Protein 1
Amino acid sequence: MTKIAQLVQTIQDKQADAIWVSNPINIFYLTGFKSEPHERLFALLITKEGQQTLFVPQLDVEEVKASPYDGDIIGYLDTENPYAKYDAKFDTLLIEESHLTVQRYNELQTAFGVQSFNSIDLTLKQLRNVKTSDEITAMRQAAQLADKCVEIGTAFLKVGVTEREVVNHIENEIKKHGVSEMSFDTMVLFGDHAAAPHGTPGERKLQNDEYVLFDLGVIYDYYCSDITRTVAFGNPSKEAHNIYHIVKQAEQTAIEAIKPGVPLSELDRIARGIIEEAGYGEYFPHRLGHGLGLEAHEYQDVSHTNHNLLEAGMVITIEPGIYVPNVAGVRIEDDILVTENGYESLSNAPK
């Protein structure tokens, strides 16, 4: 069953009239057309009969025609009301409640006489949760390019270089390998600065005998990678070295437990248990990981509160960390594909 057919079935099952998809990432997932509309209306309407209508600014219409999308198109000028170009009334409309603004909500109610709104978020998340072979191929390549970024960054390390200089070098050099966009702002943090899990790279200069944390990813054929490596520059302190090996053990032990049918909460429990037993539980303040795909952070959540089961085709990150102020911050993260019998690590930069 196609993605659209599954959504039409959902409309019917929920006894609704239509679905209004407003998140550009989900529109791309369903249509093959990608756009950043800024403040302009950009939405996909799917009715219970299966009719698809894409609302796009007039300036995007020719691009839509050249895309894989084969439904109806409503193009509109900046001075026009796009809703006025579609004559319909819907009693119940399914929406992405996590994305739709109050302004758009009110506009839909007025334009289409909507009596009730229900969420379609979980259905869309579940559609994207299990990757196709083409998606996996793209993500495998994205992970290999992220590995290359770590290699580039590590080779550039020297006493006195700044975090920002390393970031700029990585992003400039990886372009030579065909990468035009990073998954998110590249993070390079030195020594005790890495004890801020989401610190901002700045003018901190690298010194001998400290760890360097790289957290980065690239976008390849629309799909993201997201990996972290913590690399020793010289000989870090004994405590920092000990922290590194605890994190490495926590990550590897959790990864080795990955296979279909295992609760995601179990992975978090395994990694967190190792860190807590070593006496650093309070210094691991975040979930173990998250889903990965068209976005760097997506469904599902790898935490102790998510008891959903792993399925073949899911791609998740595993990224335990220990962050001790004035000592060191260590995180190790890999992109893991759940296979029929276990797992495959898409990222393979040295640890």
Note: The CA atoms of residues 283 and 347 lie 25 Å apart.
Protein 2
Amino acid sequence: MLTKKQHELLIFINDRISQTGVSPSFDEMKEALDLRSKSGIHRLITALEERGFIRRLPHRARALEIVRMPDAATQNANSAARGFQPSVVNADFQRSRSAAPNKAARQREAQNGVVDLPVLGRIAAGTPIEAIQHEVDRFAAPEALIGKGDHYVLEVQGESMINAGIQDGDYAVIKRCNDAESGAIVVALVDDEEATLKRLRKKGASIALEAANPAFETRIYGPDRVAVQGKLVGLMRRY
């Protein structure tokens, strides 16, 4: 499924090509989607290309070709999601009132040394993807593994962190925080749009999000473009 921004950009490009026969410029895309920088457009274009919705035509300026459009189910899902902000930190990390554990249940969890954590969807270890901000599952985790604090779980998608021991399909246990030391592996929200799992490097006035796989590049941003959403404190894997 496309993210809201990816879907909006695809529709905008398709409409412009249909009307004029020429794909819009990056500046026009940035203005249409109300983004602060063209780097966000670059990421969206790359994501659409990787998913097979568009094709870049070589040796031609402003040359994008629509390969296919989302099916009706995808369009309806994105329409329902308008206004959605994919911020992990702003998610409701607690269970809904009807599903909230009572005091006795919480005491049993504490006595057994087990903490019940919400699984909030997938996080990219590679090209940033949308982070789901509603609970999709629950995981019981040893309290000794995660320690104190507010935690949540994200399923890892991608291979950019494999040299740090994080594989596609692993479950990352994240401690909620809005800052982390240089060198920590964090959930980072870029341009208030998309989240990714990367190693944080602070370099003067810049923030680098570093992959742990030589096939993936390190991305460098201004400090106002990156918000730390949490810090990796544990990893769970199914065999």
Note: Residues 4-20 form the longest helix (17 residues).
Protein 3
Amino acid sequence: MTLQHFMNEAISPWMRQDGPDSDIVLSSRIRLARNFSDYVFPIVADAQELDDIRNYFQAYAHKSFQEYEDFEFISIRDLTAIEKRVLVEKHLISPLLVKNATSAAALISKNEQVSVMINEEDHLRVQLYYPGLQLTKALEKAFEFDDWLEENINYAFDETKGYLTSCPTNVGTGMRASVMMHLPALALTKQLNRMIPAINQLGLVVRGIYGEGSEALGNLFQISNQITLGKSEQDIIEDLQSVVQQLIEHERVARNRLMEQSRYTLEDRIFRSYGVLKHSRIMESKEAANRLSNVRLGIDLGLIENISRTILNELVVLTQPGFLQHYAQRTLTAEERDFMRASLIRERLALESNK
């Protein structure tokens, strides 16, 4: 397995699987922040200390843990700008890891379900994904993987405070649990804007597709916990699960209401987007994301047949700037990206229709 294994497919293997409520919930993620007890945190560490951490994890290359086979060690400083961008677009690494490129690295499992970011804000950040709403299962697997790593690592841990991290907002469990949701009906009916303040008051936050500071492209929203101290991991998961299930219910009600009260308008919106995607020659990224969201909604409502719902997951990544340039094997201007984005969407939809 090489870097190209992760670069050549827009959609990770685990994302092709359905999970509970996968018509609305694309994925569940658990991220654990951990640090070595005998090294200072990355934000103040010197180059030698960071290299020691990096070199330690290089020994995990090609190891396997349960169903997560053949971890690949990727040195961020050895990647091109386009390669870095593609890995960020696939959520395998974070934008912050790219900024720490000199000492940063990542361990990524063959099925891309587990990745370990090394020398990001903390010495290691483990993230594990599951399709659909599977927070409890994801947490169990993340704990097992964390225990496997801890067999040979002494974590920075305080009996009172919990896991110690570079940022005080992560102290305690060191855990961020998040769910990626497709909420087009709540966005279309303007209900989501009214719900977000109430969600924030519960210690949760609503962000865009790439987390903090990112835009909610294609009506994709990431719901995650803000509180890590004073609650157990199970309590955090239960709180998040409760809110997500309420959002699922509200989204389904909003979809049904749109079908009952504004069916012709909704169908026109969906099929107009489908037609534009099938025939456009130029497509900006925001327009592509919004029209793909409409098509995904049409698929979930049974209005568009013979197209997999995973097409949204795939094309949202495939049409991002990094992946377009990787596909072209060169740096593209904005105009060239818009042209190639439209071309790839047309080709992908044509392939799906011919199945």
Note: The mean pLDDT is 90.
Protein 4
Amino acid sequence: MISRPAALVAILLAGLWLAGCGTIDRPEGGVLRLATQTWRPTEDPRIRAGDVARVEALAEEVGDGLWTGHEGRTILALSGGGANGAYGAGVLVGWTESGTRPEFSVVTGVSTGALAAPFAFLGPEWDDELRGAYAEGRTGGLLGWRSFAALAAPGLFDSGVLKDLVEDYVTEDLLRAIAAEHDKGRRLLIVTTNLDAQETVIWDMGVLAKQGGAQAVILFREVLLASASIPGVFPPVMIPGIDAAGQLVEEMHVDGGVNTPFLGIPESLLTVTTPTRAPPGTGLYVLVNGQIGRTERITRGTLPAILARSYDTMSKANLRTSLAVNLAFAERNGIRMYVAAVPDDIEASSLDFDPAAMAGLFERGRTAGAGRLAWTEMKSLAPPANAGETSPGE
């Protein structure tokens, strides 16, 4: 019997020949110009990977924060993983119940991690929103036939359900709360991929939140939607930007996980080889919305099964590489690094948005978080186990 993940891949493949019918009208010569006049925003919240000065400024800001004062500061990095984000949401709620969840200096989110990041950033008072988004049936129909949209859009499924979810939770009240925390020196960073430039874009959501008003709310929603828009599955999100000539343009943004599984230590810092000892308590927590370890099983000899298995294998390899690079930096600088991930011995799929399955995954995460079993301190380049040797916060 074909598995549910492989069946979903089969559905995607069945629609590929139709996908060419759904397009976004863009001039062949380049990005669509929305206006010919120059435009100067008050402060652009995006930090492009190719903008060396902005990236280095962010790295310096985060680095200074990690090494300032007598007590170390902490980073929480939420990875991509689609429906598996329910596990990560559960871990956060359970962590609150354990009484050991810290207030993070920096929270970053990629893909499904981007959807949870604002609530994780704002703390336990927003746990009900986390539960509502991931464990109370809001994802029903996300990849259903009623959402099939290959004939009308450059994605096999309509993003209407996802848009509704984002719009319900991203309000002016949410932005005001994020702006207040930003003023305290804390940072909320979301990652998208700009397909036009083929580069990672880091969005400083506190800068955006501080601008306030309806336009800030709209852009905030678009960034979250873009970061969670798996290419080919959901349509890309067109976001206004400024080109080198100062003209207003439309950029095509998709899932932040295209380039990076999670955003931990900024890339500019990772290449620094001179150790700088961090104060006691400095920590990096990577919440993986997926599985890390290799799982042996017979791969069916069908195209959907082969593609699903290949994608899963590639994603895990990329994730393990990113974990190893971040760990090497952490070990050089005295930072304690913790990882939580979906246990390898349970069935989990990034494309299984069935509400019952996600509610069950959420509960598994909540139980692990409440029992202080979700987190493992990484002390070598080997993938971590799923039961923590050292509980964070102790």
Note: DSSP finds twelve helices and eleven strands in the chain.
